[in-house]
Design brief:
It is a single chain. By secondary structure, this protein is of the alpha+beta class. The protein has three domains: about 200 residues, Aldehyde ferredoxin oxidoreductase, N-terminal domain (Aldehyde Ferredoxin Oxidoreductase,  A, domain 1, 4-Layer Sandwich), CATH 3.60.9; about 140 residues, Aldehyde Ferredoxin Oxidoreductase Protein, subunit A, domain 2 (Orthogonal Bundle), CATH 1.10.569.10; about 240 residues, Aldehyde Ferredoxin Oxidoreductase Protein, subunit A, domain 3. It has 27 helices and 17 strands. The strands form five sheets. It has a six-stranded mixed beta sheet, sandwiched between helices. Strands 8-7-12-9 form a four-stranded mixed beta sheet. A three-stranded antiparallel beta sheet has the order 13-14-15, with no helix packed on it. The two termini are about 45 Å apart. The structure holds iron/sulfur cluster. The site of iron/sulfur cluster (SF4) has 13 residues, from loops.
Length: about 650
């Protein structure tokens, strides 16, 4: 198979039911979807029957890289894992984006993607090395945590192997299960449970190859422009300890907050953003002073392979149920009077991962666990929770555009939310007169015009302009997931040091062109995102999503006033003509949501009454076969 620049040219396939290993050309998928999540979604559409359950052998685990993986200085070492998730009802296709070095290593080992199908009849792990794949016995690894498995495989196979593994939470197919790779890169979406169902404990990769770059000189010039645009860009989304050591993903030179924390006992691990802060407030309230317990809590979740985004609302719910007398220490076997302590988080994570006692109920995920206690249990669930049981951040009541982003995704669409909220938080520095801050309301309006379709998109006192903004954000983000570029670093919409402080959202398409040699204009880039967005919507519809009926927000968005936002506690945002407003106390307007949704469907070329695709738009995106399949199922709009 002749590799084109940016690719190894090969997608590996392993059938764990039969032990067969095979390969197909990447070009079969990459011509239309470029790489990453796009290629994975297309493979999934072609191969996973709508009726297959997450733990059935027909489900696929698709590990995918993109053309940017392995390219130095690009914040492009991210990789994705896709497959059907058991976390939601009904079960849906999902995707998980991880950093670190595993993805670049898979590519160096000679594969753009790895598709795993079938279920092994005994515990196994995969060894991928320079074009060869072996299915190895993992019986000695079963029952071990993900951190331990990583060390055992490295000790046996060589420390240069990069390992993605799942802990006991994955083995026992809990709906919170993650997978954990080198550099403590954690993947959500419950795909660790799918690993468990396949008896797949880990995938270890090692390679010495490198994909070609079509136009290295042009790429170098683009990297220099990126460096100039990003000079001194302030980072605000921090949950990392201030003195932490940098722990960059492979080849990345960006000044993001990905850091290593060292605890008093000498143990080290990644500790940033949400996963670094999920237990912080509980621990502070219990111990009354900062300590290492939040770090140990994150380590426990990583090792057992439990999603901190799902564990957080479970803790909040347990707390409320305990206070209301609905659950007791005796009935749960958990020290509910000591929430915030190390003892509590140890007991909770262990019981969930091992499905012990009440942990077996919690292992089904928050919504299903709450239902076991009837209406009172359901009423005590935290107010803003996604359909997949994750707590909402960057909430619609503040950022408005994020209402559509949340409504159109069963999970928290974190990369899309970041595009709006990050700029909002940098703007807050200007609003609070921080010396040197220059992302003013006028600059944000100009960014809105350039990147979100209108200046109104940057006015958070009105719902106008938000439908187009949501569509553009979704398309830019999904196209990025094909390349794959990190959302900590992309898009570059604001630049601290240019005269107008505007960044350049055309950089991604130029970089893709330089690496692959396939010319891609900025519009082509958005079209790629639109193609993938529509394909993913088709997958969801085929799996039981009911279109408009399911494009909804939690009732709390409409009925409870905005209290605070984690990283913007005063809820400050630019309003009409750029005036500084606070959305504290605001609700999301139900009628306005319906109006936005209708406008959004029109922009997408979907049926406005049902939220279903129309044939013409799918045909124009090169998805004619998808339209035919949807029509056959009665899932096409009029
Ligand atoms: S910006 Fe941070 S998270 Fe993103 S690739 Fe670079 S080091 Fe990794």
């Amino acid at each position: 198979m002749q590799a084109k620049p940016g690719y190894t040219g090969k997608i590996a396939r392993v059938d764990l039911s039969t032990g067969a290993v095979s390969q197909v050309p990447t070009g079969d998928y990459a011509d239309a979807f470029v790489g990453g999540q796009g290629v994975a979604a297309r493979i999934y559409w072609d191969e996973v029957p709508a009726g297959a359950r997450a733990f059935d052998p027909e489900n696929r685990l698709i590990f995918a890289t993109g053309p940017c993986a392995g390219v130095q200085g690009l914040s492009g070492a991210r990789w994705v894992v896709c497959g059907k998730s058991p976390a939601t009802t009904p079960e849906f296709f999902t995707h998980s984006n991880l950093g670190g070095s595993w993805g670049a290593e898979l590519k160096a080992a000679g594969f753009d993607c790895l598709v795993v199908q079938g279920n092994a009849d005994r515990p196994v792990y995969l060894l991928v090395r320079d074009g060869e794949i072996k299915i190895a016995d993992a019986s000695g690894l079963w029952g071990q945590g993900a951190l331990q498995v990583r060390e055992i495989i490295k000790a046996e196979q060589g420390s240069s192997f990069k390992v993605a593994a799942t802990g006991q939470g994955g083995e026992n197919m809990t709906c919170l299960a993650t997978l954990l790779a080198d550099n403590d890169s954690s993947g959500t979406g419950s795909l660790g449970a799918v690993m468990g169902s396949k008896n797949l404990k880990a995938v270890a990769v090692r390679g010495s190859g490198a994909a070609g770059i079509a136009r290295p000189g042009q790429l170098q010039g683009l990297l220099e422009r990126v460096a100039a645009l990003k000079k001194d860009y302030p980072m605000t989304d921090s949950g990392v300890a201030e003195e932490s050591m940098k722990d960059h993903c492979a080849g990345c030179t960006d000044e993001c907050n990905r850091g290593l924390y060292e605890a008093g006992d000498g143990s080290r691990g990644k500790f940033m953003c949400q996963s670094g802060s999920f237990y912080k407030e509980w621990a502070l309230s219990y111990y009354k002073e900062p300590n290492d317990v939040p770090f140990y809590a994150t380590r426990l979740c990583n090792d057992y392979s439990l999603n901190t985004k799902s564990v957080f609302p479970i803790i909040a719910w347990l707390h409320r149920c305990h206070e209301a007398g609905l659950l007791s220490e005796k009935s749960t076997g958990l020290p509910l009077g000591k929430i915030g302590s190390l003892e509590f988080i140890q007991a909770l994570t262990e019981n969930i991962a091992l499905r012990r006692g009440f942990g077996d109920v919690l292992a089904q995920g928050l919504h299903r666990a709450a239902c076991t206690l009837g209406n009172r249990g359901v009423d005590l669930v935290y107010d803003d929770i996604t359909k997949a049981g994750e707590r909402m951040t960057y909430v619609p009541k503040a950022y408005l555009t994020t209402g559509l982003l949340y409504a159109l995704d069963p999970r928290q669409p974190i990369q899309q939310l970041h595009e709006i909220s990050r700029l909002g938080m940098v703007w807050v520095l200007w609003a609070k007169n921080k010396p040197g801050a220059n992302l003013s309301s006028a600059v944000l309006r100009a960014i809105g015009k350039r990147a979100w379709g209108s200046e109104l998109a940057a006015d958070f006192s009105t719902y106008d302009g938000k439908a187009l903004a949501a569509k553009m954000v979704q398309e830019r983000q999904l196209a990025k997931e094909c390349l794959i570029l990190c959302d900590n670093a992309w898009p570059i919409l604001y630049a601290e040091h240019t005269p107008d402080h505007l960044g350049d959202p055309s950089m991604e398409s130029k970089i893709a062109s330089a690496i692959t040699g396939r010319d891609m204009a900025e519009d082509d880039f958005y079209r790629l995102g639109e193609r993938l967005f529509n394909l993913q919507r088709a997958i969801l519809l085929r799996e039981g999503h009911r279109g408009k009926q399911d494009d909804t927000l939690p009732e709390a968005c409409y009925e409870l006033p905005l209290d605070t936002e984690r990283l913007n506690p005063d809820c400050l945002l630019p309003g009409k003509d750029g005036e500084i407003i606070s959305r504290k106390g605001a609700f999301f307007d139900r009628q306005e949501f319906q109006r936005m949704l209708r406008e959004y469907y029109e922009l997408r070329g979907w049926d406005v009454e049902t939220g279903l695709h129309r044939k013409a738009r799918l045909d124009s995106l090169g998805l004619g076969d998808v339209a035919r399949d949807l029509a056959a199922e009665g899932l096409l709009g009029g």
